[in-house]
Write a structure and sequence with these properties.
The chain is α/β, with parallel strands linked by helices and 326 residues long. Strand 5, helix 3 and strand 6 form a beta-alpha-beta unit. It has 7 helices and 13 strands. The strands form 2 sheets. The chain has a 9-stranded mixed sheet with strand order 1-3-2-4-5-6-7-8-9, with helices on both faces. A 4-stranded parallel sheet has the order 10-11-12-13. Bound molecules: 2-acetamido-2-deoxy-beta-D-glucopyranose (12 copies).
Length: 326
């Protein structure tokens, strides 16, 4: 099972950002350093020259949307002030999927953003020539480099071939979802803002009056009508993990709820366990939106970014998810 709990909440309180977000530590000085942002994951001992680390948090659980935007703000500042070809973000294993997808959507940059559990695995990527223009990448323990647009460890794009080198499998190119002519880039240019909105952006007043949307993930088999009713006043969106081929939804229609509902496939029905599935817009209840090939966590991340930018109508959301893009 991919999820440790049935409900994975993005919690709602936006903590005051007036407190210092990070502490900076000089690992080395001089030119040619690789910027590293630490948000969790195991501490790496041993000296590594040419690395400048900034510690934001030391989280052991899945990063929430507030933390993701805090990271984005820091990444944006760092990328603008450094001459490096990119940046490494170290995080815990639970957060790899949401962080790599979040960065793929939010950053429209030719610099490379490497998400990893251990910065040592990421350094060769940024040292390699030809690292730019590849978007967000995930560096795995196995020395393989994966695309950040797909669930981690599913779509390899290169392999480490030395201390400073990567053998890339493809020329640098843009994934369709976020290509420069994609719907997300052309019509939702506000998604590529790393700024934490300073005022409440949720359309409805919630008890916490926060700008961080709550978008839980539930399993199609695992919920009851009363659970949804008890949640409905406190959530801004919902991701339902489709039970797969045997479609036996307990809900025939979602047209009566006032938050967006996205159905996603967890890809576990695939023989090869690739972790990528597809759910078409014809096999979901009325009023719901299909996530296409996005995983449940990716759907949650994209929906949270959309809601953060006040994009909540079905017609708009349908264009964003990769199901009707032809
Ligand atoms: C996000 O997680 C941090 C650390 O666990 C927590 O302090 C904060 O309150 C959370 N924020 C939200 C919006 O849930
Ligand atoms: C980090 O290095 C820079 C340049 O070498 C230096 O100016 C700065 O004082 C150092 N900062 C710390 C905290 O050591
Ligand atoms: C890394 O640091 C070493 C010395 O610690 C230096 O010789 C080398 O040129 C540096 N490499 C880069 C790419 O800056
Ligand atoms: C994060 O905290 C854990 C303990 O909770 C500790 O073992 C680890 O070294 C810390 N990581 C960093 C980078 O400080
Ligand atoms: C984007 O451009 C490519 C060619 O560069 C084209 O094949 C594709 O159809 C375009 N997509 C959209 C949505 O316009
Ligand atoms: C993305 O970056 C390209 C090149 O820098 C730029 O032309 C385009 O307008 C940017 N798109 C968005 C949505 O910011
Ligand atoms: C990065 O920060 C600059 C200002 O410091 C801002 O103009 C720019 O829009 C930010 N970029 C993103 C992606 O938020
Ligand atoms: C929220 O921010 C926007 C600009 O980002 C501004 O136009 C709007 O007036 C603000 N709303 C409130 C209630 O402050
Ligand atoms: C939303 O909250 C504001 C102040 O927090 C209040 O003035 C307004 O009446 C509320 N709107 C609704 C629809 O509850
Ligand atoms: C739906 O559920 C009913 C009874 O629970 C069962 O008889 C039927 O075969 C199911 N349909 C599918 C497609 O699984
Ligand atoms: C972001 O862009 C979309 C599409 O243009 C628009 O509908 C939405 O209102 C924008 N969000 C904000 C907060 O301006
Ligand atoms: C499903 O998406 C296709 C485009 O791929 C569109 O033509 C069709 O109307 C959509 N169907 C529904 C039920 O939304």
């Amino acid at each position: 099972m991919k999820f440790t709990s049935v409900l994975a909440f993005f919690l709602a309180t936006l903590t005051a950002s007036a407190t210092p977000l990070y502490k900076r530590q000089n690992v080395t000085s001089g030119g040619g350093t690789v910027p590293v942002i630490i948000t969790g994951g195991p501490a790496v001992s041993g000296s590594q020259s040419n690395v400048t680390t900034t510690t934001l948090f030391n989280s052991t659980s899945t990063l929430n949307i507030t933390q993701l935007y805090q990271i984005a703000t820091q990444v944006n500042q760092t990328l603008q002030s450094e001459s490096s070809s990119g940046i490494i973000i170290v995080t815990n294993w639970r957060s790899i999927e949401t962080l790599s997808f979040f960065c793929s959507i939010v950053f429209n940059t030719s610099k490379t953003i490497v998400i990893t559990e251990n910065f040592l695995w990421g350094v060769p990527i940024l040292s390699s020539s030809d690292a730019e223009g590849r978007g967000t990448l995930v560096a795995g323990r196995d020395k393989v480099v994966y695309s950040g647009v797909f669930p981690p460890y599913t779509v390899p794009v290169g392999v480490l071939s030395g201390q400073k080198n990567v053998q890339w499998f493809f020329d640098a190119c843009e994934p369709t979802l976020i290509a420069s002519n994609s719907t997300i880039r052309t019509q939702y240019s506000n998604f590529t803002s790393a700024q934490i909105s300073s005022n409440a952006s949720s359309g409805t007043n919630t008890s916490s009056s926060s700008s961080s949307p709550l978008v839980p993930i539930i399993y199609e088999e695992g919920y009851s009508q009363s659970l949804i009713q008890s949640l409905s006043s406190s959530i801004q969106g919902l991701v339902v993990v489709s039970s797969g081929t045997s479609h036996n939804s307990t809900v025939a229609s979602w047209t009566s709820v006032d938050f967006p509902v996205v159905y996603a496939s967890d890809g576990s029905s695939g023989h090869d366990g690739s972790g990528i599935g597809f759910i078409s817009n014809t096999s979901i209840p009325q009023g719901a939106i299909s996530a296409g090939y996005l995983s449940p966590i990716q759907a949650q991340t994209l929906l949270s970014i959309a809601i953060h930018n006040q994009v909540t109508s079905s017609s708009e959301l349908q264009q964003i998810f990769p199901v009707s893009q032809q």
